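Subject: sequence -> C-alpha cells, single chain

Hey, anyone have a minute? Need the predicted structure for the following. Not urgent.
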Amino acid sequence: MEASLLNILPSEVQDIVRQVEDRCGSTIGVKPMPANVHRAVNLAPAAMEIDTDGKIARANLMLASDAPLPAHMLAHEILHAKHTLLDGAPWIQSRNGQPSLVAMAINNDAAHMEIIPTEIALFPEAKAFWASHQLDGLNGFAVRIERDTDRRALRNDLLRFSLVTGHVLPDWPHLPQLDQQI
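Reply:
Had a minute. Here:
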C-alpha cells in the first residue's frame, strides 16, 4: 500500500495491511473511483475490490478523488480485505455464479457485523459517522415505503438493515423507529 495511506493508519491496521499483502503476494493496489460515484449510491469515498479464485488473491483500494478519506474509512476497507482474505469468511454467490446484488448485499451485511464494531473500537469517532450513515439509510427507507411496489423486497432490505444496525449500534436512538417500519 502506498506509504501516504499506510501512514494514516494505526499500527494494528498497518499489521493487517502487511498480512493481506503477504496473502496476495503483492501490495494493495490503488485505483480511482469515478467522480461522484460514492455520492450517487451512498458509498464512502473508498471501496475494497477483492479478487480471489482460492489460489490467487488481489486487493485493490478504489478511492474517490473528490472527497476526503478519514483514517477510519480506510481502515474499514482494510478490515473488509482481512475478513475475506485472512479470516476465510464464507462468501455467498448466486447459484449460476453470476454477480448478484442480493448476494453482494448479504455478504457486505455479514462482514459489517464484525467490521464496524472493530472500526469503532479503533476509531471512536467512527461511531458518529455510522450513526449518521444509518440515519440516512433509515430516511431512504421512508421514501421507498411511499414508492416501492415490491413490499417483500422492501421488507427484506429493512430486516437486513435492522439486523446490522441493531448489532453494530445497539444504543442507536432510532432503533425503535426502525423496528416500527418492519
